[in-house]
């Protein structure tokens, strides 16, 4: 069984994150853009999923995800396990840091999806984020201020803890 990775990306960071995940999971994952015509049909094939969402505008999900959320709102998601990765910038957008994760989280909660991969706020330097529930981020925030090595380490640890069965280490 494979895991489905779905992302959108205006400037390449989320796409790069998807390639880092592909490097870790190899043939155990399939990667799609959420804006693909048949993305929702593809999405329904997987029980476990990772969604990568960048924040734009005034702390909103990137527009492809806004449309994606609307589509997700129309399908049955019960019994699925989803981990959310939020791409953002805690330096430039400290008061809306990774806010884009929240509307996605909210629709998944409404859909009775199991959401995994909540992350402690310790180690992040921001002012405010709507993507915090009960003291934790609702997914894994990744930020361009982190060095590549740090990003890779955070990602690997998060995957190991939440989707370890898909890790493909030689
Ligand atoms: C116009 C604009 C608005 C942004 N707004 C936010 C924001 O509110 N919160 C945040 O954490 N990051 C914000 N960012 C940072 C992006 O989310 C970040 O650069 C992300 O890595 C972009 O992902 P992408 O390269 O996959 O499109 C913004 C970036 C731009 C250019």
What distinguishing features does this structure have?
170 residues, 5 helices, 32% helix, three-stranded antiparallel sheet, single chain, Rossmann fold, binds flavin mononucleotide, alpha/beta, globular, seven-stranded mixed sheet
CATH class category label: Alpha Beta
Bound molecules: flavin mononucleotide
Q: What's the end-to-end separation, in Å?
A: 19 Å
Architecture per CATH nomenclature, i.e. the level-2 architecture: 3-Layer(aba) Sandwich
CATH superfamily: Flavodoxin domain
Q: Can you count the beta strands?
A: 10
Strand portion, in percent?
A: 15-25%
Order of helices and strands: EHEHEEHEHEEEEEH
Low-confidence stretches: none
Number of helices: 5
Tell me, rounded to a whole number, the average pLDDT.
96
Radius of gyration: 15 Å
Task: Describe, in plain words, how this protein is organized in 3D.
The chain is α/β, with parallel strands linked by helices and 170 residues long. The chain has a single domain, classed as Flavodoxin domain (Rossmann fold). Helix content is 32%, strand content 25%. It has 5 helices and 10 strands; from the N terminus they run E-H-E-H-E-E-H-E-H-E-E-E-E-E-H. Strands 1, 2, 3, 4, 5, 6 and 10 form a 7-stranded mixed sheet that branches. Strand 1, helix 1 (13-25) and strand 2 form a beta-alpha-beta unit. Helix 3 packs parallel to helix 4. The longest helix is centred in the last third of the chain and has 16 residues, at 148-163. The radius of gyration is 15 Å and the shape is globular. 38% of the residues are buried. Bound molecules: flavin mononucleotide. The site of flavin mononucleotide has 20 residues, from helix 1, strand 3 and strand 5.
